Amino acid sequence: MKFSTLACGCVGVALGAAVLSGYAADGPTAETVYSFEDAAVGRPPAGFTEALTAGGGPVKWQVIEQADAPSGKRVVAQLSEDATNTRYPLLVLDNFSAKDVDVSVRFKPISGKKDQAAGIVWRWQDKDNYFVVRANALEDNVVAYKTVAGKRSSIGIKGDAKSYGVKTQVPPNQWSTLRVRMVGNLAEIHLNGRKLFEVENDAFTQAGKVGLWTKADSVTYFDDLKVSSLDK
Q1: What average pLDDT is seen over the chain?
Q2: Which CATH architecture has domain 41-229?
Q3: What is the Cα–Cα distance from 41 to 63, expressed in whole angstroms?
Q4: Closest C-alpha to 122, from 152, 101, 148, 144
Q5: Is the CB of residue 33 less than 8 Å from the CB of residue 20?
Q6: Nearest-angstrom CA–CA distance, 5 and 227
């Protein structure tokens, strides 16, 4: 077991696949950081479950070595190149459930002819029901969605219900940071430290899990998944 004391006075603990580098056992703002440094290479990280929404072949989530990993040398990657358009691979954190959350992740789009997407899911009920926000390096945009009964539909930004997310640069083959913070029915969406937009939606009002998401043939690397429960 590894321990590291942070500036905040919290203690970080390395447990299996996860490095908890900012975890406080009590309080709604406790933050857990998963950097995958202790995870076994060549398989999904312990403490996470693979899932798939809609069609296509099996997902392929693996921990791999990556020289430019944001922290350490290991990241988790979705490596399947199945190009089925309505295909959404997921990697869901097992031992977490909250209604109000603050979640961020570092991501690096590697390849994909149909999509080069990286997403965060929250209030995840099952593989067919959850919120997701994703950044796409082919489209250069960030969009929030609800997936209900396996069908994904976009959520218009607050004040413009007909909008489709926000156009913004999502560089391929570079590390970026995607973040969502949701309290009640209001979610704030951030990219690389900048707030892009807000959305309001009541599709899921109960607590749920969080996780990672891609689409179609996206090969995407992820690191430093940060998860906070804001429930009181």
Answers
A1: 89
A2: Sandwich (2.60)
A3: 5
A4: 101
A5: yes
A6: 18
